[in-house]
Every structure is written in structure tokens, then in C-alpha cells.
Design brief:
The chain is mostly beta strands. It is 6% helix and 52% strand. It is built from 2 helices and 21 strands. Strands 3-5-6-7-8-9-10-11-12-15-16-17-18-19-20-21 form a 16-stranded antiparallel barrel. Strands 13-14 form a two-stranded antiparallel sheet. It is globular. The two termini are 27 Å apart.
Length: 408
């Protein structure tokens, strides 16, 4: 019932808008500052639809796929998946006050979440205020995650099973941007609610930051009363590359209750480096991200719970055909490849001195067709090797994925 009341206002708003639509009144809202847009601008760098004089603009994206994967020769056969549908609602309240929200329906509406809902107050290009439910800017993918922007069916493993993808919290912060010729510099910093002890007390049986997403109470109260601090700085030259450096850290455990000390304050700290560039002449797009995680795990836990983790991905996308195809005048066919690696437990066993081997390596070659820049049809072949904590022979998973994603 709560989910119904959450979605109903947006459904009624969309229905009212559709009732008034005339083809001459529709217009796409221009994207944020085109050439020098950064990853941290991604939530606003989306296509929105404005209708006449309605005070809001609407948008969204959808992605669905088929896959046939096998693990060590065992397969579940053909699987069809409705991964997600997201709805955007944005409004310019006043000249320098704007609001944006995103509601995400995952796995055929099995899970519905308010992923983003923030009010921006623009004071100065270098100093602006944002508050509400914000995406913590750790790495680049967490903010720039829309399916139509990627040539791959699955999100990067490092973004979903190392870092918590689309990790958002309630809080406040500041951001700013400075242009200088071909350069742009930007920053943002937030204090929000944060992690809880699920990151070491979970069904995975290991240190696992994505488990914190299972706590919906983080949108109404802090688990331990200590804010999570997230900050990012990025610099871009439109002819060279964009590079971003981000940090996220705070106390994750409940160290006291009503003044009674329960435990020492235990920290989780994350550093991430991201980059993207396009090679001249070849037009090869390269996008990469790498993260390092440090967690203060109690000494009473076994070594399968890691103090240190790391991982990331790198994507290569090469346009191979740019011309009319099947009646779509601006079609682009891309050849792509993703290489990704995650190590959930960096270190050695204290008793034997051998390496702890809880890691995964995957290679994903792909072909994609973009009949328009806002829609992608993608064919992936996924091959991965996953090694358990004891270093036994890896579990091999391989198979094909075919799907699409599109803004609407």
C-alpha cells in the first residue's frame, strides 16, 4: 500500500499531462552544458519532456533483456528479465531553484525505490546548495548509471557487488563548477546518513558494502548518529579526458546506545578514481573506474571478512558504422569490450601466509546498435572466473545476453 501511495501522485500527474498533449506543445528540455558536462552532472544531463506551461518536466528510461548463461556447464536456460524502469520528474521552482526526483522500478516492480529527490539552490557557480535524497558521489558510475548510456547489459561488478550501485542517502551538501577555456573543474561534498553493520553482518558471509542498501530506514534516521562524508573533485579538458577523485567515509557500527558504550567506533573508508576519454581520429571511447575500500572489522571475526577490498572496470567502445540503417538516419554500430576485476579480500592468511583469494575476473565483448543516441540495442557475451576465499579452482560462468535500453 505504501508503494501505491508513492507512485500514485506521479501516475496522476502523467495522466493529466497526457490529456493535454498536442504534438505542437511537446519539446525536449535541453541537456546540461553540453560539451563540458561531467559525470557528476549526469542526473541533470538527461532528456526531459515539457508540456506547454506545466511546471514540471518528465522523463525516464527502461531496460529489458534476454540471457542464457551457464556456470560450470549447468544452466537455467532462457531467461527474460525486465531489469528496471525509472521515472524522472523535474521542476524549476524559481530562477535559481530547481528540483529533480527519480523513482526506480526494478525486476518488474518487485522493488520500488525513491532513488533521488533533491532541491538545488544556485548561489554562485562555485558555491551551490543541494539537499534531500542525493547520490553519494563515489566513483563515476554511481551517478552516471542510466542504462541507455552503456553498451553492456549488466552494470559493472565493482559497482554492484563491491560498491553499492545507485547508493543514495538523505543529507545536504555543496557543489560548484569553474570553466576556463577548454578546462572545467568541479567539486561536490555532502554529509548524509550512511552505512550500518550489515556490511559485515549479512547473508554473503563476507565484508559486503552493498548489503547496506537493504536498510530503508537510512532515509529517515542515522544508524549511529554519525554522518557519512562524501566528496569528489573532477577536472576535464574537452580535448583530452575527464579525471575524478572521490572519497567516502564514516562510522558504520552502533558504538553506543543511550550513553552506554557498546563497541569502539569502527570506520569504513572508500577512495575511487575514475576517468573517461575519447581517442582522436579513432573516436574510441575509454571509460574506467577503480575503488579501494578499508573496513575496521572486529578482531572476533574470521579472516573471510576483509579489512581491505579493491576492484574496478575499464570499457572500450569503438564506432564501426555510422550511417543510415533500417530507416534510422543517424545509426551507430559499436564494437565494445569490458574488462572487470573485483577482489573482495585483499591480504594473506595469518596462519598459512597464503593469499586470500576471494576474487572475480570477467571479460565482456559486445556489439551494440544505436538507432538514435537515446536508444541502444546490445548483444553481450559474458565470461567470468570466480575464485572462492580458499583459492579453489575458479567457477566459470559464460553465456549470451541480448537486450535494449532507451530513454523515453
Amino acid at each position: 500500500m505504501k508503494k501505491l501511495f508513492l507512485v500514485l501522485p506521479f501516475t496522476l500527474l502523467a495522466a493529466a499531462a497526457m490529456a493535454q498533449i498536442d504534438s505542437t506543445l511537446l519539446r525536449r528540455k535541453p541537456k546540461d552544458a553540453a560539451a563540458n558536462a561531467l559525470n557528476m552532472n549526469a542526473v541533470y544531463n538527461r532528456p526531459f519532456l515539457s508540456v506547454a506551461k506545466l511546471p514540471v518536466a518528465l522523463g525516464g528510461y527502461v531496460e529489458a533483456n534476454w540471457q542464457h548463461l551457464g556456470t560450470n556447464g549447468v544452466t537455467e536456460g532462457h531467461q527474460f528479465q525486465m531489469r528496471r524502469m525509472s521515472l524522472f520528474v523535474a521542476s524549476t521552482v524559481y530562477k535559481r531553484i530547481k528540483f529533480l526526483s527519480e523513482i526506480e522500478f526494478e525486476d518488474g516492480a518487485k522493488e520500488i525505490s525513491l532513488e533521488y529527490a533533491a532541491l538545488d539552490m544556485e548561489v554562485h557557480p562555485l558555491f551551490n546548495i543541494r539537499g534531500g535524497i542525493v547520490l553519494n558521489p563515489i566513483g563515476a558510475f554511481n551517478q552516471n548509471h542510466d542504462g541507455p548510456k552503456w553498451e553492456f547489459v549488466d552494470r559493472p561488478i565493482s559497482a554492484t557487488q563491491l560498491l553499492p550501485d545507485t547508493w543514495s542517502n538523505v543529507g545536504f551538501g555543496v557543489y560548484g563548477k569553474k570553466y576556463q577555456d577548454s578546462w572545467v573543474f568541479a567539486y561536490e561534498a555532502y554529509v548524509t546518513n550512511g552505512f550500518d553493520d550489515r556490511i559485515i553482518d549479512n547473508r554473503e558471509g563476507k565484508t559486503f558494502l552493498p548489503a547496506a542498501k537493504q536498510n530503508p530506514a537510512r532515509f529517515e534516521e542515522s544508524f549511529n548518529g554519525v554522518p557519512l562524508i562524501t566528496a569528489k573533485a573532477a577536472i576535464r579538458n574537452k580535448r583530452i579526458a575527464e579525471v575524478g577523485l572521490s572519497y567516502m567515509g564514516g562510522i558504520y557500527n552502533k558504538f553506543q546506545d543511550e550513553g552506554v558504550v557498546l563497541d569502539a567506533r569502527r570506520r569504513v573508508d572508500v577512495m575511487a578514481l575514475d576517468m573517461n576519454t575519447t581517442l582522436p581520429k579513432l573516436n574510441t571511447a575509454i571509460t574506467g573506474e577503480w575503488a579501494w575500500i578499508s573496513v575496521d572489522v572486529p578482531a572476533t571475526y574470521t579472516q573471510q571478512y576483509a579489512n581491505k577490498q579493491r576492484g574496478g572496470f575499464i570499457d572500450f567502445v569503438q564506432p564501426v558504422y555510422k550511417r543510415s540503417l533500417m530507416g534510422f538516419e543517424k545509426s551507430v554500430v559499436n564494437a565494445a569490450c569490458r574488462v572487470e576485476y573485483v577482489d573482495w579480500n585483499v591480504g594473506k592468511f595469518e596462519v598459512t601466509g597464503g593469499n586470500i583469494a576471494d576474487h572475480l575476473l570477467a571479460v565482456v565483448p559486445a556489439l551494440s546498435w544505436r538507432p538514435t543516441s537515446q536508444t541502444v540495442v546490445r548483444l553481450n557475451y559474458r565470461y567470468s572466473w570466480k575464485t572462492d576465499v580458499l583459492g579453489n579452482p575458479p567457477i566459470k560462468t559464460a553465456g549470451f545476453q541480448l537486450g535494449f535500453s532507451s530513454y523515453f
